[in-house]
Amino acid sequence: MVADLDLVIVGMGSGGMPSAEFASTLGLKTAVVERGRVGGDCLWTGCVPSKALLASAKVAHHLRTADRWGLPLVDLPLIDTSRVWRRIKEVQRQIATTDDDPARYEALGIELVHGSARLVDGTSVEVDGRRLTTRFVLVCTGSRPATPPIPGLAEAGYLTSETFFEQDRCPASLVFIGGGPIAIELAQACHRLGVSVTVLQKDDRILPRDEPELTGRLTDLLRDEGLDLRLGVNATSVEVGPDGTKVVVASVAGEEARFEAKEIFVGAGRVPNVEGLGLEDLGITVGRRGIETDERGRTAVKTVYAAGDVAGRTLFTHSAAYEGVRALRDMFFPGKGTLDATIGWCTFTDPELAHVGLNSAEAVERYGDDAHTWRLDLTHNDRARADGADQGAVVIVTGPKRRIVGGHILSPSAGELIHELALAEAQELRLDELAGLVHIYPTLATSIGLLAAESVFDTAARIRRVTRFIGF
User: Which of 147, 235, 295, 424 has the smallest CB count inside 10 Å?
Assistant: First the structure.
């Protein structure tokens, strides 16, 4: 049987949208199945609304702390967060009616099919009774917030990233369960908008995948702002008080503690959206993190690929887009789509915390004595001091021959700065090679240049004894 389509993409979010656009440039006959709204989590519940919220919160914080810049303090009245929420929804509307507009994709020749998809076999997808036959299938169904098994939580009700921005305003008080990127970003933003916030993190530090030194610094900065951040706290149950207040009962150093708020926000990880797709019936393995694929993004059924959160590699918008496009390259140009890129990430607190590659402990574990960590506080960066933002640091991790194997930045715009280190790691550059790039002064990026120069100077110091014998 001749397939009607070249490609069926299941899911029109961070992985599906760029994949569909790339398919159109290849002239492929493509259909995209979406059961919800075009744009996925990134537009409606994740990156876009959270960054719009963070922007409003940053302005409020600067007004309250204007004396740091020699300006008069502003005594802000109680902030009407409904106005902030209206701005968030307007930003979403602008994107939904331009870059993420379904009509734009239809104009590219992509058919949008609304409904729930189920894979019949490796070349057939059924959508609410309609069967699409295709050469290849790309599954980009994303993930959703996980629900921890805390007694009483479901009965009390709670917010997640999927429901937080569906409200008309921020709750008057919040208890966050979890200390990962989503929870920490939103907790800082809400606190800056005048909301009473408590964060309960069961581990001994927040953001456990990042460089410990920098997460410790960020923890101190958040607490200095007044954020109630509790570490080593394990939520054991949830109750609802007579006045509707929600109470998180927790264990703290073996003692019971109670934390009250109008609402609870759960940020305890994510689970892949695989239900109803019929994957197991086709022999496609679904593990705890998601659909299992090979290094080319292929499942056990070689005409079915998976990209983004549902494949469980790195749960970021940018990696979903990359994986989806690489999957298409491999489908139609076999062997060209290996998923070998260096993937960094950033937690968009203020200051931001960006990460690529190994942290210092991981480097020591892998390379032993060949591992080295290079640090520079932003107190040595003239731009950071001029901007009143010198609380962070740059950490570069090197392995054998001082090749860069990791980079970590706590700084304003760290998410922008990290790309230089990501490229250096991907190209297996030595730290001293970055010294050959003249960094613009005064910028935050000069800290990277200074660390590269330090590597050069260190090498020079070690060989200075021989310079007496070579005719200088």
Answer: 295
CA distances for 133 relative to 18, 24, 105, 298, 354, angstroms = 22, 18, 20, 18, 43
User: What is the rounded distance in angstroms from the CA atom of residue 219 to the CA atom of residue 188?
Assistant: 11
Average pLDDT over residues 426-434: 96
Residues comprising the chain, all counted: 472
Across the strands, what pairs with 143?
272
CATH code for residues 351-462: 3.30.390.30
Q: Which structure tokens are listed for 179?
A: 């200390």
Q: At what angle do helices 212-224 and 360-367 cross, to 10 degrees?
A: 170
**Does the pLDDT of residue 240 top 80, yes or no?**
yes
CA-CA-CA-CA dihedral for 457, 462, 468, 470, to nearest 10: -80
Do residues 156 and 238 lie in contact, with contact meaning Cβ atoms separated by under 8 Å? yes
CATH number of 5-145+271-332: 3.50.50.60
CATH class of 153-269: alpha beta
Q: Which amino acid is at 48?
A: V
- Contact assessment for residue 452 and residue 470, using Cβ atoms and an 8 Å cutoff: no
35-55 per-position pLDDT tens digit: 999 999 999 999 999 999 999
Long-range contacts of range 103-108, CB-CB < 8 Å, 24 or more positions apart? 105/12, 105/17, 105/20, 105/21, 105/24, 105/32, 105/38, 108/20, 108/21, 108/24
pLDDT score recorded for residue 1: 59
Per-domain boundaries in the chain: 5-145+271-332, 153-269, 351-462
- Two domains, one topology: 5-145+271-332 and 153-269: yes
Residue 3: its pLDDT value, please?
Answer: 82
Please give the share of the chain, as a percent, with pLDDT higher than 70.
97
Q: Read out DSSP for 405-466?
A: EEEEEEETTHHHHHHHHHHHHHTT-BGGGGGGS---SSSTTHHHHHHHHHHHHHHHHHHGGG
Query: Residue 256: enclosing H or E segment and its boundaries?
Result: strand 255-261
Complete DSSP assignment for 10-48: E--STTHHHHHHHHHHTT--EEEEESS-TTHHHHHTSHH
pLDDT band of residue 74 (cuts 50, 70, 90) is confident
Q: Determine contact, residues 327/386, Cβ cutoff 8 Å.
A: no
Q: Say if pTM beats, i.e. exceeds, 0.85.
A: yes
Please tell me the distance from the alpha carbon of residue 229 to that of residue 175, in angstroms, as a whole number: 10
CA 59 to chain centre: 22
What tokens appear for 324 in the block?
């989806």
| DSSP string over 81-104 | HHHHHHHHHHHHHHHHTTTT-HHH
